[in-house]
Write a structure and sequence with these properties.
about 140 residues, two-stranded antiparallel sheet, 4 helices, three-stranded mixed β-sheet, alpha+beta
Amino acid sequence: MQFPTEVASTNKRPDIVIWSPSSRQVIIVELTVPWEERMEDAYERKMGKYQELVADCQERGWRVWCFPVEVGTRGFVGQSLWRALRVIGVIGLERRQLIGRLSREAEIASLCWMVPGWELITPVGAPLEVVVDSAETTEEGGST
C-alpha cells in the first residue's frame, strides 16, 4: 500500500488510510499488537511515528485523524480502538461485535506462535481457523 499522494508525499505506510478528496479529510489507522503491559508505550510510539505525516497533511489543507490502535496479544482491546471505531461511525452492537471478534482473533493468532504445535490457517474470506497437533503439544508439556 502507498499513502495517497494527493494527500501528502511520504514513505510511511499506515495499516489503513481512509480519505475523501471532496471533503479533504483523511483518517490514518495504525495497528499494533503489544503485550498488554506495553499498550500505552505502543500507543505513544505509533502516535510519534505519524506526527510529521499528520502535520504535512494539515499544512496541505487536510483535516486529519490519526488512530494508533492496540489489540493486546492476549486479546485485550485498548480504548484507542473503541474511539477510532466511534469516529468512523461503527457504534452500538456492531462495534461491540467487531471488538469481540478482533479480541478473539488476536488471542488465537498469538497462541499460534507462542504454543508449540499450533498452526494458523486463514483462507482469504473464511473465518479464522486454528489447528492443534495434540501429539506434539502434549509431548512439549502442553495440554489440548
